[in-house]
Amino acid sequence: MTTKTFGEPIARLEDPRLLTGQGRFLDDIGHRALAAAFVRSPHAHARITGIDVTDAIGVDGLVAVYTHEDLDGRAGEPLPLLIPHEALTHGRTGYALAKDEVNHVGEPIVMVVATDRYVAEDVCARIGVDYEFLPPVVGIEAARDGDLLVHDDVPGNVAARMVQSRGDAAAAIDAAPHVLELDLDIERSASTPLEGKGVHARWDADDASLRVYTSTQASTSVRAALAARLELPPDRVEVIAPDVGGGFGVKIVHPWPEEVLVPWAAIRLGREVKWTEDRREHFVGATHERGQLQHVRVGFDDEGRLLGLDVTVWHDNGAYTPYGIIVPIITTTQLLGPYKPGAYRAEFFSLYTNTVSVTPYRGAGRPQGCFAMERTMDAVAAHLGLDRTVVRERNFIRPDEMPYDHGLIFQDGRPLVYDSGDYPATLEKLKKLVGWEEFEAYRDEARAAGRRVGIGIACYVEGTGVGPYEGGWVKVETDGSVVAATGLTTQGQGHRTAFAQVVAEELGVPVDRVNVTTGDTRRFGYAVGTFASRAAVMSGNALAAAARKVRDKALRIAGEALEADPRDLEIVDGVVRVIGSPASAPGGSIPLATVAVLANPLRYAFDREAERATQFGGPVDFSKPPVAEGESPGLEDTGFYSPPRSTFANGMHAAIVETDPDTAEITILRYCVVHDCGTLINPRIVEGQIHGGVAQGVGGALYERMVYDDAGQLLNASFMDFLMPYATEVPVVETDHLETPSPLNPLGIKGAGEAGVIPGSAVLASAISDAEGFAITRMPISPSDLYSLRSTSTRMGETPR
Amino acid sequence: MKPAGFTYHRPVTVDDAVAVLAEVSPAGKVLAGGQSLVPLLNMRLAAPEHLVDINRLSELAYVRAGGDAVTVGALARHADVERDDAAYAVLPLLRDTLRHVAHPTIRNRGTTVGSIAHADPAGELTAVLALLGGTVTLRSAAAERTVTAADFFTGPMSTCADAGELVTSVTFPVPEGRTGAVWTEVARRHGDYAVCGTGTVVTLDDDLRVAGARAAFVSMGPEPVVLDVTDAVAGATHDTADWAAAGRLAAGRLDPEDDIHATADYRTHLAEVLTTRALRDAARRAAEVAP
User: Fold this and answer.
1) Widest pairwise Cα distance in chain B
2) ipTM more than 0.85?
């Protein structure tokens, strides 16, 4: 393998292990651990009046039963509100085990620990809980009405109300030649990683230390939270994310009730305890996203240029607000996409309902914002009889207007300033890729054959690489291999490959000599987490900084050994040499492995190579100490990256769909993506991220919904009825890239993790509307929904096209 | 999602199996491919005290295709039936339908007889058996009996089988005369239970005029529904028959329910569209049969 791999589509280094069953996921750990199971509320809203464990006592294999009363110290306090915000005036969180009241089906009430999960579930079935029923608030309309309350002390069910504006939107709209209003509706979906949550904890009483494995996106923060909750010194707590089978946002929330309770019980019992979430629990015991109602009022001129935009969002935040109001903030800032809205006003209400809490799911409020903006663009085009791409182009921020300041505050609390991007070029590429100009001919051809087809487009801009920081550590071992670590976690994205490419590039070593560890507090203790398409931007740049320091040190030491100026040296394939000289030149090169040996002055030789670093190993300058002042032994260093603000990736999707005139079945014929995430570390990994995102976008648009009945029961809490798309439902994704480097970081990277999912509902609504001749305003849409709409909708033209 | 405790039995002969079932009756449940039962156990929607695993009953692992019928033993997997060329030669409808049953991995484990004994009104094979007027053979420790599909299915997930009985085989008769048969369905995703599914059989006379037309449905009622729609098309030549009228006739006689995936209205509409399509296709196939 050659040194040069940065930017190359190399195969993922982790795949042979993962694809041959060598992965080590949470449930692979601790086979002899005690098992936990939970009695969860079967009711959406109720007061707990009694818990009867009489029938459970004496069951063979039962170890312990815990309720809220047992949670001593800080373990019994409400769970943390992770991201406070001044607009979140009525933030509420639940308890690790419910105290007095339950606010959604699935809320944990009793923890059972037993010798195995079978027994634990048997015991759960024998525990009786008495409830006094309270009326449930289900659905955004019910929450907005405010007649019934989720939390007695939260009037109108309003957790937060927030307004952001620039200029006088109402006046601009009133003065505009054309005004349109849209009412839009996006239903709930969820991250639904194939591996649910899971926690394993082991208390070492002799060492007074706790080791926790958890399927998380934020191991360092889990450590901080556990140390606080369990009142342990942080250095006595180790948290490790093993292989994680998908996160997609849900696993950034922490500490989960189970994440507190399993370690708490392990300490109390002095035994290993494990809990692995099952699918049914995940549907009701984790978090959801997406549910919003939106009202858009837009004013525009004869050319379709926006003059004023006023958006109101009613956001369903479920029972609690553990992750603050990040999702609606993102919706109301990121809906602007690549456009200049004229005067802008966005207001959101974050509302409680007696359903599972809402926290970010890949896209994190952007799919809803994109839906609002792109439905608006289509409506403007339809109103003026203009091509949909023309209206979009007329509203684009031009490349020469970058950096572009929207005059709003983004989710990181910093100004919403786009760093770079070429939206007209992206659109041109997309139109060419999908054949936008040729589509009418194709439509005519299809119509002649009795087929109904439509084309749709949707554009987005995604704030990625959110701060505050990440760090990286790089070390060259004495065998020339390189170990690196970063604190953020990995859930299957291919970080180990991408980060190895970054380190290999900086250090001049073959990529397969670099071994990267993520999400292990034992290896790197300072980190924020994996979310907001930030890993490559943040840890990529941090590891590059660390590797650059190591490289500089290696060249300094090699310069001394070779009696050369470090500035004349380079590292190629793991060998330091005079620039341009062949590695075989005598005395003109030194392996990085040897430099690593020399970097650590030794008293004792452990092998032949190490002899060179001992006190009698070679010529010595007696005027200097063995380790130079200001240096540290070893060829290792750490680096950090902290961005001034987020970097903004962008992209545009186009889809061609066919709708069956008789059965109303919806088929995606083509799905095209043009994407710009700055400099690419590994195009293959970026493509994979896009493919996965598109799959989830298609799921959210055509298949997935959380069906709650009026009583707050989730009716489809299984993969049989929650329709995650199969491979057979996901179209072939045709992609093209632009690379507009970010000026904000040394590598020029922008994030790519969420891009694929963002425009899914918007682009498919656009295409279905185009096929059917009436505007789709509610997603997801099923064939049954489309059939109903056909008989009730007003067509945009005279006849369906 | 762990099952409640049960006693596990694994007999190796049919005689032993029915003896165990008799002994534990009515607390026993038969485990074949497990594709429906195991999820029910794990979700504790079913908690039988005894599980009688018939996966060692190799004597029931057969597909027998004759000129007038295909008989499927209780241990034949869906995939065995699907891939059986002799069965396909006499009754292509079986393979055509099985391609709509879940996914290959499920068909490799799940059994055709098991899905019929489970009597899920969304199960395609239940409708095919009813459409063809097939029979079900049951063994108990005391006796063996054969009942018609119409008598076997008594409601959603319910059959006339007694607690001590094992369904040992089902027989799909080959329709007589010049016939064509077609399965079609609309499902939310490939391999899902159908929102509406229909199987049709059309019989033509020597002049290629319609002599009989029947359709069976899944997901359209509590048990497989079989409708004779010959009246709408009797005597017409296969290529001029008003199949849409037959589709309307069928749809008008169905009474499906709303669920989270589709409204009853949409289901009824689909039944009309799919029945029309499937009857037309079945008639075309019948016309192509060598006289």
Assistant:
1) 63
2) yes
